## 1
Amino acid sequence: MNEVSFSRKVREVRFGEWVLDPKSQRIFDGEVSRELEPLIFKLLCYFIVNHESVVTRQDLVESVWCQRYVDDNAINRAMSELRKILRSNKQQGIVVKTHYSKGYSFFLEPEIVYFENTSESYPHDSTPKIFPPRTAFIFYFVLAMLITSLIFVFISFKTRDVDVREVSVDEKTISWLEGSYNSIIIHPSERFIAFEFTPEGEGFSSVIVRDLVTNQENKLSHQGINLSPSGWSLKSSELFVKKIRNSQCEIWKVDLEDKEKSQKFIMNCDERQRVMAGISDETIIYSKFGYRNNNNLSTVMIRNIKSGDEYQITSPSLSSFGDNFLYFDELGKKVYFERVQFGFTELMVTDIEGTEVTSLYKTEGRIWRVSYDKENDSISWFDNINQAIVYFSLNKFSLSKVEKLDKKSAYSLAYNLSNNKIIAVSVPYSFDIYDFDLQERKFSPLYVSSEDEFKAIYKGEFNAYLKKHSNGSKELILTGSGVDGEEPWMVGNILDFDLAEKSKTALFLYKDSFKVYDLITRELRAEVTLKNYPISIGFKSENVVFGLIKNDKLRQNQAFLYDLNAMKMILLPLDKVSWFAPYKNGSYIYVDVEGSVWVKESDGSTKNVANITKSYFIDSFALREGELFHSDGKNIFKYRFELGDFKPELITSELPNNMFINDIYILQGSSKLVLDTVSVSSNSLIYADTNR
């Protein structure tokens, strides 16, 4: 952060009734003395330095916050706090003036007092030193790189010293009801758990609250409504419950100590919202979707239940998947959350005002829930990729321990309890491939088995799909003329793939490169290293690849073409793109992060042709001639933009309640779509002992 540093000769700065002591960062007016927080001190100093100018919000972003983007709410809160601090019984007038649509200005004339007992108005040649934007950027960039290098070395050293051990688990199923268990929420006392349960063969879920001491259970259910637990109040037995009926989502508060289980409506919600916490009788923390007009981007919010007022405390970039609330540390007033990026997740922490955001740890998997260990001042979470409990020390700011669980079942979600026990649910999901006939409007299984299948591609005589085996390895299942169907083609941790019929090549995308292989001989023909994390890839033609990468410098996604013959990458000017595909005559169809569909013509002109509907689960798209197909996870819509029909046509909404659509593709040469699906099946609720 840029710092305004006064000369050591400066004893104080006077303005209005106030006197600022730069050394102690305090102000006093002869009656009251107030200590300034670092951000407020920097903000005040910046206004004093620039008292002759109108200061824009962008000036504050670049020179006080020293970032490229700061949410307006954060600036509003800081300005409100500054004005509140500068108001006293003696200082009643305006100190910072607002200029509508322009910015702010310091209304009073500051006066410097030096230790040499000389007093004068603010001279230009003795202005407190502040780095010019460009110089400041270079300085802090170099400093940040140095610190990052040191942190990298430090973390690498600490990672090598992490205590990795294998822990045996004695599993016990604590509920024998047949059905699907999900969404475990642990009470802060660790005595009660709430979980979602859907009976086998039924379409609606209920919430069950279990006392882990007495083993008694209470069931909350409503006919025709899906219920799911969202969180607990920290100081009571009140449970927040999510109710979903006909795509309408609401949060209710249930008093479990009340015999009648009295319920109170809290707010409308998004079905994807996961965890929340009641930090007082009137205040909750939760994740809210729709940040910066991006339907799939979430941010952490603090909300007053009584008034409905709320403010955000995190500001994810448009190139991320957003922030999800995890845990509130009541003693330290810290908020822990995950920031989901392409290819990795960051464990983050901030204060309750959102002014001090820190990245603690990066991991390839998601962090769905965390537990706090007060004795060791650490947090832990379940790594469902490696089936391990990960411990992070808040004292050392590094991993302290990893416990690989030796157990019978694969877990999708687990809580680490303080009494050497684990609460978990076994994996309830299966991934399969279906096709959907656009003429008959019917689903049919394409590749369904006990193992997981992803992305089926049909290119002329070649057909392929990915299969993930129980040990986590991925295999390309390929058929076609001349293909060796006997020898397994193991493809590693592949992210995406495509086939080219004429050149008989396969395109594989990995987290740092893409590779082109001969379909028949499996020889590597080309390998291209990517500097930014990739999102998707495909063949535009036999020798031209198109794809999407995350551009951290621009803080948004970047579309590109790559010529395999010329070995040259071309970046495409598609603004805020989240998905795109080549269209015709050098044009492109793309969807931006706000859900608008655009046609980018070869002459550079852009036309808005549609706006997609709100996502239910996850957005996916497929293009066929003048028709764009969009899935929101439960439904499939068609947009016929070439005919000037910008409104979506619902072509199916008949998925089973336990099935969701992950992705959609065009089945080449047919009137069918291919669907990657995930289904929720029966599983178990497990209470396990560990031999720690």
## 2
Amino acid sequence: MKQRFTLLRLLPARLRAFFCITLTLGVIASYTAVAQHSTCSILPLSLEERVQASQLIVEGKVISQQSFWDERHENIYTSNKVEVYKVFKGNATPEVVEIITEGGRVDLDLHIYSATLSLKSQQQGIFFLQPMPNRTYKAFGSLQGFIEYQLPQGTARDPFRQYSSIQQEVYSSIRRLTGSTYRTINHNLALEALAKPKENTQNLRRQFPLIASFSPSTIRAGVGDVLTIVGTNFGNTRGKGYVEFKNADDGGDSYIQPLPTDYVSWTNTEIKVKVPTSGIDHGTAGSGVFRVVNNDPNTATSATPLTIIYAVSNVTYKDDDRGLAEQSYIPRLINQNGQGGYTFRFGASFEANKPALYAFKRSMNEWSCNTFINWVTADNATAVARTADDKINGVRFATSGELPANVLGRCISRYSGCIVDGTNVNFWVTEMDLEFAARTDWQYGPGSASGQQFDFESVVLHELGHGHQLSHLILPRAVMHYGVARAQVSRDLSPTSDIPGGLFVMSRSTNQTICRIAPMVAKPEDNCAITVQPLALEAEYHPADNTVLLEWETQSEDGVTEYVVERSQNGVNFTPIGTVPATGSATSGSSYQFVDTNPPPVLAYYRLRKVNNRGRSEYSEVEEVRGPEFVTQLAPNPGGNTTFLYYSTTVSDRLYMDVYDPTGRIHSSFVVLVEPGTSRYELTLPNVGRGLYLIRWRSSRDSGVFRYLKVE
């Protein structure tokens, strides 16, 4: 879906859920019309289910908003004060109710939850509410707990249905289910005005616009690309006129308008406008015909469709104090983990579910090896117990009650921003968290989803695309296409939309430091993939014939073609020494051996490079083998300030080291932590002059002296 959010210093935040997946489902019983509007990774809740689950059902309008941190300073929530017009269910007769929604903005910190209700000021409709502490409420089903009114058309919509009449469809349906009529608390003047006779405009002079042509016919959204529209009767100035594009978030069932600052120019015969991913009423511009509405207002529709090949997510910001009009900005990815990008950590139940874990990692590799986004994982780390703003990018199965009803999964994106020199606005992604429902109808792969299953890898790939800062498209062959259906498998990025979009984001995210925040470092093309399934390599030196035997086993080998055995003498620079063809399959593994007949005499390091049928490589852990000439020593010697300690131990230990000159004067003391399985340690010696030094060392088991000649 789109990413659109407005930050206001004095006004309430206008927020919108993003990182969503719109589920294209069959017609649901009791729905006369199904619209895929903002259905962000959710399954339909019938109107009957919503009525039955709600303690209070009201018609109302959002009159004020205030965002706040929770007590632990982990998540931002928003308090929405709603003026009540009518009560459809419940004994209470409140003038105002307080509805708490997840996400919001505090200063320049912003949390956005996908598949989750996010309201805006002056929005009105029907709220299906459940009680919370301190006389507050939450919307049952979150996004599905609100039927939004579309005034002045007199229509309404929820994520899965369009209502042609508020009074005749919405009111009557709820009355039928509750068995009673509503109670009026306050007059809804905007709704009542729709029933009044309309002004007769038949004799007014009106101009009907016509679109003659437009260019380009293929364009990008959210990057500043300008669409030029040529025609007649647009009006000499824009006035209340506007351009509107198909909304990619609902597959084009509705239209979205650009921000006022997106209009470059407007004359009677030509309009220049930027194609947005953050429309004035939310949404992302998608492929399809577009419309021009002039000030009269009259409408012209393009004769041919506009194609939007990719859409980059934007943040919108407005600051009345600084005189900054509402405008869109592209957020950057950063070097959050100090290793070039972001590290994902897993919840205990997610990491224990190996098929889910492997599907997630395959999806990561699909992005990283096509756009080189720097994502890695921390396996077997401390489990992520909850989702919080804690600089941990968590991936977990949500526990009961954490996700809104019927939500398959969601992403939480956390942003921070800064303003340089009063006008230069910047935003970056500080953290991203993913939550998924623990369902029985997931197909984790590597087999394809079928029947009523949802393909987990396809869902993850799409969600990670939002984490990559890409928005929805109306392009069925693209991963960022707005919809995914049961049994639909979409595990490969589109080379004409998804990949170019990701590369654009990377080009902006790796090119400069902003606000002292380090930019992302792109992954190298020859080492882009993380290891999906652990590859346990064992290596053993055989002194009888001076060989090293390497052995490994696999659980499954989906698409694996071969294993390349690589060797190094320093643990850094590896060289291939042999290849073993893969003999397993997608559902079964195999056992392998390889013999190195010419191992290095001191130390050798071995690893496996697993190659798949797409030419991508994954690496095993490195195994160290000591040769027959291995001794405890410093090398190189003579050397400079840096050398290496060669030392073998069977237990974790400490080596206490003291550096003396030949006169017996001590220059420094330091400790080296030694571990089993590691026999080579880099040492940085004190910054002293050239000459001979004695380095005394001792452990819990032995001791000795090195004579070291420093020549640099």
## 3
Amino acid sequence: MSQMPQLAACPSCEWPLESGDRFCGACGYDLSVVPAPPEDTPTITMNGAAAPPPAEGAPVSWPVAPGTDGSDTPAPVHLPSDIRGTDSGGSELHVQGEPMGEPPGEAGPQQPHVPGPHVPGPQPHVPGARPPGPGAQPPGPGAQPPGPGAQPPLPGPQPHVPGPQPDGSPPHGSEPHGSEPHGSEPHAQAAPSGQEQPAARGVRFDRRAGLSADAGDYHLAAPQPVDPRTADLATPPAGTKTCVACRSGHVDRDGYCENCGHAQPRERDHMEQELGSVAAVSDRGLRHHRNEDAFAVSSTALPDGTPAVVAVVCDGVSSATRPDDASMAAAHAANESLLEALPRGTHPQPAMHDAIVAASNAVNSLAEEPETAQEHAPHQNAPACTLVAAIVTSSLLVVGWVGDSRAYWVPADRSSPPARLTEDDSWAAQMVAAGLMNEAEAYADRRAHAITGWLGADAYELEPHTASFKPDRPGVVVVCTDGLWNYAEAAEEMAEVVPPDAAQRPLHAARVLVGHALDGGGHDNVTVAVLPFPAPPQGAGSA
């Protein structure tokens, strides 16, 4: 009777068992039917069959060390390829080139590659030795062993030397003497007879047919960047823009390239306009992600035929909803109102008051649009902006404003004093007007730029400010947002920045002023318009 395996618990219900139990005390499971555990065989088999246990005392066929003769010639050593290998089951490895099923050694005796004693029988295939190629025939019975001076085969891949054809023509796939296949390395010179061929350097990989064996390592070609000067770039579809960075991707509606993801510069990031004797420049600055300023410049004629030049500059309130839309709507509404009132003979100062009211109504209407309701957040106010505008005629200068955007007078004769033409609707201005602080103390306070007047649906009360002047000498009017005057606050500082030829080159002067703000840090959007006084004769027009 076979011995039952010792179990610690029942295989059916896992009830603890004691030594000698034949049945489970809980479920009655017959423990005699439990199969015995297999014997532990640490050898890992590759053919699915367990290796037979080695017989005790079985002799091991070790290769016999060759002896020495009396000629003081050292005995040759055995190469790794001279020893027949075995698999995990103890069977000899099959050598490629020998027919399967034929016992080793029947294909003809094979001799070792070196003279001297050797292990009888065919030699095994050892990893690292070059196996015979496909279709290679085993040596026949009459094959001669290599002579004493023959060199042993080198490990690693061996080149295939095609033999001549029966008709005497060169071998197939060979090149005539003096020519090399395209893209291959020149053939190395053969070593003299009796000298060992140098082994190939590096690791060689199997390659596809037709590739040179000496072509070197594999290389991954890096993608070449597109050169916009020579590349044949496709024309973008109508209504789309091409990326300014990669020059190949299309820009989506959100302003990003579909190819490289680069954010495209917005149209309002930098704007310039020159119309006769008036010019304006607006820039996003160096810190803000978008330009929330806007401007409008135009020229028209009064009923008596004299010219009138108009400039409107607006600054969106960043803490409000849609500040960029608010400034643009206010600038266009005020400009259109002035272009309609001045040719009819309305006095410029009442026309300026009505233009500010029209701008306020345009900004208020934005609060009722569905787009504003979608973007509106509890901590944000309705769309809002500030405004400053100027009208220049042949003898009159009129300014109007709401908020902290400013207008400066800079005479052509710099020996005459410049002046600031507006008063801010801000906390600092109120402190100075009430006599509670001087100007230096007020503008040094962190609440200095908190505005107390603006255009918007949530404004406390609309109070348009207008002022009329009759300068007795030529000069220029600078209309700007706080993005500029923060870097040239006093009238004297502004006059130092304005170029002397500003009346003749207003666009150049506006660019210089914007550059001054950017050089100072560009912490805010910067917008400035330059109007010469008196207005030179010119034809009516608007933009």
